[in-house]
Fold this protein.
Amino acid sequence: MTFYTILFYILAALIIVTTGLAITRRNMVHTIVYLVFSFFGSAMLFYLLGAPLLAALEVIIYAGAIMILFLFIIMMLKEEAPESRLFPFRQWLPATLLGFAYLVLGSLLVVSADPETGEPLQIATASPAMFGEYLFRTHWLAIEIASLLLLIALVGALRLGRFDESESRKAEDAS
């Protein structure tokens, strides 16, 4: 078993654990924190498998933008805050341990060398133009479907955001 195989299995286990913790949490903020850890693990897995662009996109889009959007949604729902301001130690321990494990694995990925040759790993590179050309030539239908779904979600979110009680009263009066 090579060093990279061991790293792969450790990352896969950490992704499964953090995703499982995200599913089982009752507090929505804790769920988002564990999902961010899961997305960082997925990004490290992409990097390990030779796709640094996908790793960067995973961190920027999913761990960054989408999780911030989820946090805003939770704040807009005005969920009741817990009684205490600081979380108990039993809630900090899993997040701290998993964060430390990801930090160690990420450091190992960045500074590691190929175990067979002893040389640093060569990054498989593709320019954004080449990547975009490949993506739109071979997967244009999937991109169009995804963009249509995002448009429908945006229209639905705008409709829900602008829906107020006066409209619901008008709808009830009309019935």
Notes: Residues 3-125 form a domain with the Four Helix Bundle (Hemerythrin (Met), subunit A) fold (CATH 1.20.120.1200). DSSP finds seven helices and no strands in the chain. The mean pLDDT is 79. Helices lie at 3-24, 28-48, 52-77, 89-111, 128-138, 140-162, 165-174.
